[in-house]
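Lab meeting minutes (informal)
Scribe: AK
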Amino acid sequence: MKYKILIILLVVAVSGCKNEGKNNSEIETEHNHTQSEPKSDNKKTLSPHTSAMAMIGDAHIHIDYSSPGVRNRIIFGGLLAYDQVWQAGAHMATWLETNKDLEIDGKELKAGKYGFFVIPNQKEWTVIFNRNWNQHGKDDYTEKDDVLRFKVTPKTSEEIKEHLEYKVDKTTETSGTISMSWEKVTIEFPFEIK
């Protein structure tokens, strides 16, 4: 009998210790056995991870990025300052991979994987391919790792593109265009397969 009482007291003491440090609502929730929905399943990702790909001849071109939303914000010249490097997406830097050499703006981009960065401006943007493709945002960006830089003129629209979107479009068996659209701005540039 002494052992039974001792075991019961031990169980009560351990149970009391488990609830120590919890507020009353946490204890009530446990005892009512109600389960709340997991937050991660219910919460919509604000910048979903996505990609754009195309086969042009024997060339496979793949752009990997996270797609932020406008969400009633001024993006270019607001959230993203003009004349500063941007990783052209959310979270990790956007990257482009090609299995064939490309010619862009009269310059060669060797087959490989590259970080894709831009410097937005109202009149022209600088497009950058950087050898450091695996970085968070622009934290490790350095101009000395740039392998290709060129300028493009942005196109503006009255319609808002809510989520950042890249496209790789085939124009012939050996050429195509890459475009990036977000908010009211689109940039686009052609490329040739070498």
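Next up, CB showed the second protein from the same session:
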Amino acid sequence: MRRAIFPGSFDPLTLGHYDIIKRGITLFDELLIAIGVNADKKYMFSLEERTKFIEEAFKDEPKIKVVTYEGLTVDFCKEVDANFILRGLRNPGDFEFEKAIAHTNRKLSEIETVFLLTSSGKSYISSSIVRDVIRNGGDYTGLVPDTVVVK
């Protein structure tokens, strides 16, 4: 079975993430959306909210499971028997950052990283931009799936 994880904080899930996930499921038998938990990080949305956003967005996709994890991504891959890490690239800066992580992960384990370029119409979207729009009362609805609801 070709099992991959798509790790991230998903704070919140964006249309960029959604794009990578929808295209990624065509490459793998199972795709685990792995929400990383970092006790030192301050999130806008709770873990429960982020999980719900993703589960609702992909409720009709049987090949997708939403999970949470702590620690090294490669250790989690071993734990869930995933051979691939899926990552999205928006720009050259993402590539340089993700390349270094992919090389490190490959050095630590046999995990392969698969990169997909974010669709051009979504490459400007990031979770940090979405959070800034939300904090300042802007219209964020064109940046996130319908399942992302701000209270």
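CB comment: The beta strands are 3-8, 30-36, 64-69, 84-89, 112-117.
No objections, moving on.
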